[in-house]
């Protein structure tokens, strides 16, 4: 016994390793692990993995400025695979669009007009839901937002906020969106390119990404056949 | 093809059963509801053809499938009755109740057709003949309808036996069925869609030269499945006199219901809160006493004016001890508050005179499954509690569950209801909805459309005329100014800018990059909620690309319906 203790105390490297292991086990137990890589994640569409290379990390706040579709797309895969989603203060969210993006409407809770009770309602949603979407025009003060963010970190839920959110882990700003498919009176909306600027709280530089939402496969197929016809 | 000693696929899995059949049930039920005698010539019309014809009318030459004119030509004194599935089912309850005086546990296959497990009942009554006699007697005496009873092994044979009032000896069903035409298969189909599938199958078989069931069942089962799919396999088994599923017996049990009569009409919330808690507690006790749980509760109340208010709420609390009565008490209170304050759509608010809670979808304790949310996981019950918490914070109507429903415009395609309340979509999703705004669906759908200006190159409004032509190509769009930026917009609110009085303030005109339309939609022109609109998809040209808009022209004005953002 004494000898064993002595051997542990003997090597400095071993003591350091033992201390680190003890610390990490405590961290894992109380859920305050600092390494981003070790945090559990919610599933994310492959198309969007470029925007969030580290994934949809539980406990993070993502602010999305300029596109409701992008917010829905971020939540879609997780919702389809069993996560619950609450949408607060977004009376105009398109439910059909949400369903087409892949959100499961059976696990979608809408609170269109939380009014002055937004703080309590958002708190409840962050406690019990996996993803909470918060609209742009809500009566949340800066302090409320900070409290909500720390509550989300503690409960492991994700906040997707429309519009700016000070202290968000990731801020996505849609800088350019271009629709294709319309002409002068003919056609219909088919495809849309989004240019998104992604700024992380930790990563200093702003990354710019372009992605195609609503890629229209039937149109592409039609174009492909047109090309082959021309070749023939 | 002479009937060979074909492989019958081992011992047929068939239950001996007696079938009670009321001929021409829809017309018998309709005549009874209309107060007519059973011997009057009558027929039930659905769509363009007769679906059921009474014996007297048939004698005069009216047949199923005849149109109205043709039937009236054959029989001028014919009474034509409307079709109503609900009425058929309701009236048949009387027949089922009469049959239950003779046998315990019957299965209503469809209105007009009743199944009785024959073995035990026949033993009790002495013989199958005695059972059949007792059934016919009881039905005629109690409900006043004439019926026929037959018995055989297997579903189809029993139905055929009932139609000719014979008792097929045990084990002889296959022979009994052998010479029957393939058309008989559709008799065993219990619901309309299944019947359509079977009728298609029968028409193909007839064209292939297969006219009797013996010829059909002689075909190898594997080939039938390969050629005709599940319907073919089903028909093949039914045609051999087998059963596809065991009979499901009806248990005649009274609804579990708790009723409360107010001594004086109640209109104060405090009064109702107590009643809600008390009624929920009594319902919980009644359910426990019966050893069951329910997954839905119907809340019904009557007002002083005689209106009846009714709502169905889901209850997913399972058997959590004590939670049920609390959970229900909240819902009952919300519902009553809604009715009293008149916020819920319904008749005018009035004091309530009685309240009743009825348990629906009753299942025995322990049998319950988490069928609503799939498997119950920690996250699901946590989310459920969260929703309840938000409902108690904000009120029940503020927390919504949404579903898709049928419709053409993005707003019509959403059905929102307070979380936990049962609503049925007014319009089905799987109907075709021609003229629907094509996908992708807009991510922002304004709850109420906002006015919008669509201008041509010269700056005058674009209109859609009666022939659905645009007066000029749309070139500019002016959105309504954001009320939050009213001060910025106030600068433009100058007489010279064309703003007078309470007119909305407009943003600066923005150029249109591309557009498509107009797509006309004229809906429900026969009703008060008629609408005639022409839709336009517009992509804006902004420095940053800009979103696309969905605009609608209606009543001489453009409205912003949705934003593709």
Question: Would you write up a description of this structure?
Answer:
The complex is a heterodimer of chains A (about 230) and B (about 575). Chain A has about 230 residues and is α/β, with parallel strands linked by helices. In chain A, about 40% of the residues lie in helices and about 25% in strands. Chain A is built from seven helices and eleven strands. In chain A, helix 4 (about 95-100) links the parallel strand 4 (about 85-90) and strand 5. The model of chain A is unreliable at about 1-5 and about 220-230 (pLDDT under 50). Chain B has about 575 residues and is of the alpha+beta class. Chain B has helices at about 25-35, 55-60, 70-75, 85-100, 120-125, 130-140, 155-165, 175-180, 190-205, 215, 220-240, 270-290, 325-340, 380-395, 485-490; strands at about 15-20, 40-45, 50-55, 80, 105-110, 115, 150-155, 255-265, 290-305, 310-315, 350-365, 400-405, 415-420, 445-455, 475-480, 510-525, 530-540, 550-555, 555-565. In chain B, the strands form five sheets. Chain B has a six-stranded antiparallel β-barrel. A four-stranded antiparallel β-sheet of chain B has the order 5-6-1-7, sandwiched between helices. A four-stranded antiparallel β-sheet of chain B has the order 8-11-9-10, covered by helices on one side. In chain B, a hairpin with a 2-residue loop joins strand 5 and strand 6. Chain B is globular, with a radius of gyration of 32 Å. The interface between A and B is large, with 60 and 55 residues. Strand 5 of chain A pairs antiparallel with strand 12 (about 400-405) of chain B.
């Amino acid at each position: 016994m004494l000898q064993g203790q002595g051997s542990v105390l003997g090597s400095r490297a071993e003591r350091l390793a033992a201390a680190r292991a003890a610390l990490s086990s405590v961290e894992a137990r109380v859920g305050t692990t600092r390494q981003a890589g070790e945090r559990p994640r919610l599933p994310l569409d492959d198309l969007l993995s470029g925007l969030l290379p580290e994934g949809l990390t539980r406990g993070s706040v993502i602010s999305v400025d300029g596109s409701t579709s992008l917010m829905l797309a971020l939540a879609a895969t997780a919702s389809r695979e069993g996560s619950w989603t609450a949408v607060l203060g977004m009376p105009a969210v398109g439910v059909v669009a949400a369903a087409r993006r892949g959100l499961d409407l059976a696990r979608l809770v809408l609170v269109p007009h939380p009014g002055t009770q937004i703080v309590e309602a958002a708190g409840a949603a962050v406690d019990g839901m996996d993803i909470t979407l918060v609209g742009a025009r809500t009566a949340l003060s800066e302090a409320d937002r900070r409290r909500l963010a720390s509550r989300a970190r503690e409960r492991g839920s994700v906040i997707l906020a429309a519009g700016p959110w000070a202290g968000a882990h990731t801020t996505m700003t849609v800088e350019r969106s271009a629709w294709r498919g319309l002409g002068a009176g003919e056609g219909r909306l088919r495809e849309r390119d989004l240019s998104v600027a992604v700024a992380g709280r930790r990563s200093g530089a702003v990354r710019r990404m372009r992605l195609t939402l609503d890629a229209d496969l039937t149109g592409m197929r039609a174009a492909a056949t047109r090309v082959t016809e021309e070749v023939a | 093809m002479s009937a060979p000693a074909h492989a019958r696929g081992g011992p047929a899995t068939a239950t001996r059963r007696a079938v009670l059949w009321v001929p021409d049930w829809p017309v018998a039920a309709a005549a009874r509801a209309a107060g007519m005698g059973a011997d009057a010539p009558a027929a039930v019309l659905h769509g363009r053809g007769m679906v059921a014809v009474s014996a007297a009318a048939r004698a005069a030459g009216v047949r199923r499938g005849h149109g109205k004119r043709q039937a009236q030509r054959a029989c001028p004194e014919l009474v034509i009755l409307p079709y109503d599935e609900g009425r058929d089912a309701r009236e048949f309850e009387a027949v089922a109740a009469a049959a239950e005086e003779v046998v315990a546990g019957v299965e209503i296959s469809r209105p007009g057709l009743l199944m009785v497990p024959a073995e035990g009942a026949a033993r009790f009554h002495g013989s199958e003949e005695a059972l059949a006699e007792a059934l016919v007697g009881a039905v005629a005496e109690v409900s006043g309808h004439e019926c026929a009873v037959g018995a055989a092994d297997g579903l189809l044979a029993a139905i055929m036996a009932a139609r000719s009032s014979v008792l097929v000896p045990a084990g002889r069903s296959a022979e009994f069925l052998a010479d029957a035409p393939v058309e008989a298969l559709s008799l065993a189909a219990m619901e309309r869609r299944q019947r359509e599938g079977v009728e298609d199958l029968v028409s193909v078989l007839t064209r292939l030269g297969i006219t009797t069931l013996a010829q059909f069942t002689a075909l190898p089962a594997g080939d039938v499945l390969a050629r005709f799919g599940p319907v073919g396999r089903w028909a093949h088994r039914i045609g051999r006199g087998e059963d596809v599923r065991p009979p499901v017996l009806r248990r005649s049990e009274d609804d579990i219901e708790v009723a409360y009569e107010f001594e004086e009409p109640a209109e104060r919330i405090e009064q109702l809160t107590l009643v809600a808690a008390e009624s929920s507690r009594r319902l919980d006790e009644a359910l426990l006493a019966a050893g069951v749980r329910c997954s839905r509760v119907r809340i019904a109340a009557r007002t002083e004016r005689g209106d009846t208010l009714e709502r169905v709420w889901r209850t997913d609390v399972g058997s959590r001890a004590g939670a049920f009565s609390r959970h229900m008490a909240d819902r009952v209170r919300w519902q009553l508050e809604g009715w009293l304050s008149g916020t819920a759509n319904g008749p005018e608010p009035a004091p309530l005179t009685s309240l009743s809670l009825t348990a629906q979808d009753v299942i025995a304790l322990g049998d319950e499954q988490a069928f609503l949310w799939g498997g119950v996981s920690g996250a699901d019950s946590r989310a459920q509690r969260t929703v309840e918490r938000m409902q108690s914070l904000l009120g029940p109507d503020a927390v919504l569950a949404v579903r898709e429903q049928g419709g053409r415009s993005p707003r019509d395609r959403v059905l929102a209801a307070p979380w936990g309340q049962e609503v049925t979509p007014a319009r089905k999703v799987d109907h075709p909805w021609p003229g629907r705004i094509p996908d992708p669906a807009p991510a922002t759908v304004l709850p109420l459309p906002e006015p919008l200006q669509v201008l041509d190159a010269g700056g005058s409004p674009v209109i859609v005329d009666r022939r659905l032509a645009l007066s000029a190509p749309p070139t500019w769009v002016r959105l309504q100014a954001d009320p939050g930026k009213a001060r910025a917009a106030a600068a433009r609110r100058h007489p010279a800018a064309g703003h007078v009085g309470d007119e909305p303030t407009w943003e600066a005109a923005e150029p249109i990059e591309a557009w498509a339309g107009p797509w006309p939609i004229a809906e429900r022109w026969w009703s008060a909620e008629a609408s005639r609109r022409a839709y336009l998809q517009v992509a804006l040209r902004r420095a940053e690309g800009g979103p696309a808009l969905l605009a609608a022209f209606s009543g001489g004005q453009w409205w912003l319906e949705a934003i593709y953002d």
